[in-house]
Specification:
heterotetramer, A alpha+beta, B mainly alpha, C mainly alpha, D mainly alpha, B: mainly alpha, Four Helix Bundle (Hemerythrin (Met), subunit A), 2 domains, 9 helices, 77% helix, globular, C: mainly alpha
């Protein structure tokens, strides 16, 4: 099933494409020039032996100054342009109406706490078309909470709460979207399989799901 | 031609670096695996250091004769003194990082005990003054030997040693046991951890300085220093003053603030 | 090199500064402000020791760049640590 | 016509043979050349060990759900591969070459503190042995990744003694490298021969100046962190197990070391490339002064970028922006360095032999690795890259590619000086080509593994990581043996006959020509500033001239003003020029 690309990921993709294009052009220029020079100026067998001339040349000082100036101007303007173009990494919404999910990482699973006290393990169900705030911390060692398809991540650090926002894609009908969560920070032997799943459903289905979780989990509280 | 360059040059060899390296490895290995091994390692390191000291007393490794070369921008500095300063730079970075770490954890912590209630300010101030005086003593030693006064040199160095030892005795013998009796220990939380690790590392530097001053005293009694040949006193003095400077920051950070 | 008398004066000043620090502590007032004053006195003591006991003042000026560079590095670290709190 | 070796040289060869087989000689030496050789040999030994760990990692990741290694053993392998390669292979390999070459390039008899140099070496060797031996301790070695993040590094989570030993080994290594940096800086400042002014300082020595200055700044904070960590593990302090800033404290101290460390590894490589390009393109480096200034700029800026490793730790936004900016800013002078190197080839006469090929490959890898690194400077992109195989690909291009290739180039380039023997050019080129192809097959697929987290010991079929990993493993099986062959080509050359020329490359640099101005036999009294500056001999070739090109004009001697041709050639020595003339005459 084709899933919609989340807002954060589409921002990310656009900027990534732009940056990679610039990078590839720069790479092509530098490496192309190098290969051209090597091919053109390589010493051939039939040539007479070359004796290098290391004596000072008048033009050299001017050359290096011009080189420094031009390279700095070009590179610095590239850098400045891309710096201003880069989107805000937090994706912090102007709309304060958030669903806040507490995420607690521990060796080697994720616990998700909903505002009403429901907790789930390695599986988080979210309503569509909503801005979600993740409040990430860890109960033991450092982990890294990475939502693969959203291209956002944050470290889960004991004693520290890191937040970020995502906006779930619109889900109005019966469609169900799933996204992967990986741990990106080595956290012990279970690191490789410390993953979780985000399920996005339509808001009504979400409420229904949340209600179904209530009775059985009423004693558990979010970490 | 490079061969020939070697031919003309006297080769100097010593086992001391190998022994020190092996001893340190043995010491660390022993600390982790089997503690008696660490004691043996410490002994090996001490033997290596002793070899170094003996070589120095015999001036076996006196500087290669320096040819006239380019030395800008530090034309008038001997290379040993420059080396000491570069070493002190790395020491500033170690203690600086630790102090930054201390300030960081202190601000990150919700609560921190009031310094004057935990620490003994009187002993701290006494120790500060003792260290300042020991700095003065080693300066006195240097001033004396510059005018060829060997007696002043001996008094200065012995005074430095005595004051440094007094600092350690007050700290390790009186201050720390009192803290432990009050329940303020190295593992009692971040206030204790930072205090004991930082001042402990500083005390280790003082102890290292005492070893170095002991070497100076030994060499003095062998008549190793003269009016024109006393660079070692100045260089070790630089280190001693540095240890003093570190305490100038540790004292207020722990005892007063 | 200055005389012993001069060094004695420096030493007396340093001891006086130490006593002053301890006295400053007992002044009632804002904790932060007093802490800053105490640290400034300490920095002054450290600079004095470096200048006179380590006779940086009488050395090649370039030599002072070494400790200054190290202190700048530490200030970098301190600022960044402060901001990442 | 080639010159016959004279009796003195033959004698010294014999002496060298006797020396090579004397264990006592090697254990007690304080001579910079022997210590340099020891460093190089030891670094290559650790490279073999860490390379084997690397091959094990790739073998484990070949197919999904492989069980060649257990999760714990895999993590241990990853950690030791990283720590050994960065700290016990690449850093000391640069330092080893520097040990041999720098005193020759500045005309010093030895390093400033020969015994300290020997102590640096022995502590390095023993710390490496300690690090490798952690594997054999009960409970295994460190399994935290080379970054040793807190609080995984505390005794609560890694209780094995091997982890503690690894921390102490790192502490010993920081001691060793700090001693080296003190030694090299003092040597280069104080022990230059007459005439080797800062402006004429050879480029490799310049690179070592910046390397060692950075090491001096970088290793003490690491040592401070390690002191805290070992007191946590031994004495029960709570620095890193505390939830009050423990993890961030380690991050700060580690990356304050960790980022400059990257440049500590890369700078000697750039210095080698500059030297090799000058010799085999037969042209002075383009914009030499600008090159050095850019070097200094990179060194300075590299102290202020470390937090880009911490973009995902929840820093506040202004800090993210600041460090994003400094990281982008450092790419400007760094690309300037690469451009200057490339432009050196313009209108040159390039001899394409093994060292030159390695250097060209290193330029390629540093450009690709650098550019992929620049992308990570943007926090928004880094949120996805951080901790994935994209990052792994990036830093292997910089570390494994650039540094390893360039330092191998350095070994090939200076091999005839160190051993008096020429390696087999054909095998050298073949090994290079295979290694270069294998390298790219190994690391280029990593850029397609954008979603694969680092340091996972295996992955599922569903993840879609399988094909790229398979290709990478094939590359690893090509690259590893090829790199081993590249070293073997050098080692086997020891059986070749002794070279008759002292300067087979006709290089112009001081370590080959040894054209230092020797002090006059009756030294002229030093003038008021204490500098005895004789002007360079006009008749000399090489370094003496072209160093002064660029923005600085032929410098007037600072003192006497009037030129005095006081050069005294050493008996039996051959300058690069006289060698060239001899050969010219022979044609």
């Amino acid at each position: 099933m084709l899933q919609p690309i989340p807002v954060s990921a589409s921002d990310w993709n656009h900027f990534f494409d732009l940056a990679v294009t610039i990078a590839l052009i720069a790479l092509a220029i530098v490496i192309g020039a190098m290969i051209f020079f090597v091919v053109k100026y390589r010493e051939r067998k039939d040539q007479p032996k070359f004796f290098p001339d290391f004596s000072p040349k008048k033009s050299s000082a001017r050359d290096s100054f011009v080189f420094a100036l031009i390279s700095v101007i070009i590179l610095a303007s590239l850098v400045a342009a891309s710096y201003t173009l880069a989107p805000n990494p937090r994706f912090e919404p102007s709309d304060p109406k958030n669903l806040v999910i507490d995420v607690t990482a521990f060796q080697w699973a994720w616990r998700f706490g909903y505002p009403n006290g429901v907790t789930t393990l390695d599986n988080v169900t979210l309503p569509g078309n909503t801005t979600i705030m993740f409040n990430v911390t860890s109960a033991d060692v450092m982990h890294n909470f990475y939502i693969v398809q959203f291209k956002v991540s944050t470290e889960a650090i004991p004693g520290r709460y890191n937040v970020f926002w995502i906006t779930t894609p619109a889900a109005t009908g019966n469609e169900v979207y799933t996204y992967d969560i990986y741990c990106k920070e080595l956290c012990g032997v279970g690191h490789a399989f410390m993953d979780a799943v985000i399920t996005v459903v339509n808001p009504a289905a979400y409420e229904e799901w949340l209600a179904s979780q209530m009775p059985s989990n009423s004693t558990a509280s979010g970490g | 031609m490079t061969e020939q360059y070697e031919e003309t040059e006297e080769r100097k060899s010593t086992y001391a670096p190998f022994i020190i390296g092996a001893g340190l490895a043995l010491l660390f290995f022993g600390l982790v695996v089997f503690v008696p091994l660490a004691i043996g390692g410490g002994a090996v390191v001490a033997a290596g250091l002793f070899m170094l000291f003996r070589d120095s007393v015999e001036e076996k490794f006196a500087d290669l004769k320096e040819t006239v070369g380019e030395k800008w921008p530090v034309d008038f500095l001997s290379k040993r003194k420059l080396g000491v300063w570069v070493f002190l730079m790395s020491e500033i970075l170690i203690f600086g990082s630790l102090i930054v770490g201390y300030i960081f954890v202190r601000f990150s912590s919700g609560s921190w005990p009031v310094a004057t209630q935990v620490h003994n300010v009187t002993l701290g101030m006494t120790n500060t003054i003792i260290l300042l005086t020991s700095s003065l003593a080693i300066v006195f030693a240097l001033v004396s030997i510059r005018s060829g006064n060997t007696r002043g040199l001996k008094i200065g160095l012995l005074g430095t040693f005595a004051l440094g030892a007094a600092f350690l005795i007050i700290k390790l013998g009186f201050e720390w046991p009192a803290y432990y009796r009050n329940g303020f220990t190295i593992s009692s939380g971040l206030p204790g951890s930072t205090y004991f690790v930082l001042t402990g590392l500083h005390a280790a530097h003082v102890a290292g300085g005492l070893v170095a001053v002991g070497y100076l005293i030994a060499r003095t009694y062998q008549g190793g220093f003269t009016k024109d040949n006393h660079a070692a006193i100045e260089n070790i003095g630089l280190y001693w003053h540095f240890v003093d400077i570190v305490w100038m920051f540790l004292f207020p950070l722990f005892y007063l603030i | 090199m200055p005389t012993m008398k001069f060094y004695l004066g420096i030493w007396a000043g340093l001891v006086a500064a130490t006593v002053m620090e301890v006295v400053t502590r007992s002044i009632p007032g804002a904790f932060a402000a007093i802490s800053v004053i105490i640290l400034l006195i300490s920095s002054g003591k450290a600079v004095t020791i470096a200048m006179y006991f380590q006779h940086l003042r009488y050395e090649n000026k370039s030599l002072a760049l070494l400790p200054i560079a190290a202190v700048i590095g530490i200030i970098f670290l301190a600022i960044a640590a402060w901001m990442s709190m | 016509m080639a010159r016959q070796p004279n009796a003195l040289e033959l004698n010294s060869v014999r002496r060298m043979k006797a020396m090579v087989f004397s264990i006592r000689e090697w254990l007690t030496t304080t001579h910079h050349k022997q210590i340099g050789i020891l460093y190089i040999a030891t670094a290559i030994f650790f490279m073999a060990v860490a390379g084997m760990f690397g091959e094990m990692i790739r073998t484990q990741l070949t197919v999904p759900m492989n069980n060649f290694l257990t999760a714990f053993n895999y993590e241990q392998t990853v950690t030791l591969h990283g720590l050994l390669m960065i700290l016990w292979v690449l850093t000391p390999l640069g330092a080893g070459i520097a040990n041999y070459i720098v005193p020759l390039q500045i005309g010093a008899k030895d390093l400033a503190f020969p015994r300290m140099n020997a102590t640096s070496y022995w502590t390095y060797l023993f710390s490496g042995i300690m690090m490798v031996s952690t594997v054999f301790l009960p409970g295994g070695g460190p399994n935290t990744g080379w970054t040793l993040y807190a609080p995984l590094n505390t005794i609560q989570f890694t209780s094995q003694p091997g982890m503690t030993l690894a921390v102490l080994a790192l502490l010993l290594l920081s001691l060793s490298i700090t001693m080296s940096s003190i030694n090299f800086l003092t040597t280069i400042v104080k022990c230059r021969a007459s005439g080797v002014t800062w402006r004429r300082l050879p480029l490799f020595t310049w690179s070592i100046v910046f390397t060692m200055a950075l090491a001096l700044f970088a290793f003490p904070p690491l040592a401070a962190g390690l002191v805290l960590l070992s007191s946590d593990r031994f004495l029960g302090t709570v620095f890193f197990s505390s939830t009050q800033g423990g993890g961030i404290l380690w991050d700060e101290l580690f990356w304050f070391f960790g980022h400059p460390e990257v440049y500590i590894v890369v700078f000697p490589a750039l210095g080698v490339i500059a030297e090799v390009f000058q010799t085999f393109a037969k042209k002075p480096l383009f914009a030499r002064n600008v090159f050095i200034v850019e070097f200094a700029a990179v060194a300075f800026l590299s102290m202020g970028v470390w937090m880009h490793h911490m973009f995902t730790t929840g820093l506040n936004y202004s800090l993210l922006q600041t460090f994003s900016f400094t990281t982008l800013a450092i790419s400007v002078p760094f690309e300037g360095l690469v451009l200057a190197l490339v432009l050196t080839l313009y209108k040159s006469h390039i001899t394409l032999n093994t060292p030159m090929l390695y250097c060209l490959a290193a330029i390629f890898t540093v450009t690709l690795g650098g550019i992929t690194g620049v992308l990570q400077a943007f926090p928004v992109l880094d949120y996805a890259f951080n901790g994935t195989y994209w990052v792994v690909g990036h830093f292997h291009y910089v570390m494994a590619g650039t540094t390893l290739f360039a330092l191998l180039a350095g070994l090939y380039y200076w091999w005839p000086m160190i051993t008096k023997r020429k390696y087999n050019e054909k095998f050298g080129v073949i090994a290079f080509l295979v290694a270069f192809v294998g390298f790219n097959v190994l690391y280029f697929p990593y850029f397609f593994l954008l979603a694969m987290p680092r340091r996972i010991f295996t992955y599922t079929v569903a993840s879609g990581f399988a094909s790229a990993n398979l290709v990478a493993t094939i590359g690893a099986y090509i690259f590893g043996p090829a790199a081993a062959v590249a070293v073997l080509v050098l080692v086997l050359s020891l059986r070749n006959p002794v070279l008759k020329q002292a300067n087979p490359w006709e290089a112009q640099e001081l370590e080959w020509t040894q054209n230092y101005r020797k002090p006059p036999s009756s030294p002229t009294p030093p003038s008021s500033t204490g500098v005895n500056a004789d002007p360079p001999d006009e008749k000399l070739t090489g370094q003496w001239y072209w160093c002064m090109t660029g923005s600085c004009k032929q410098s007037k001697p600072r003192l006497n003003g009037r030129k005095k041709l006081a050069f005294q050639s050493k008996q039996g020595s051959i300058s690069g020029k006289s060698l060239m003339l001899e050969e010219k005459g022979g044609e």
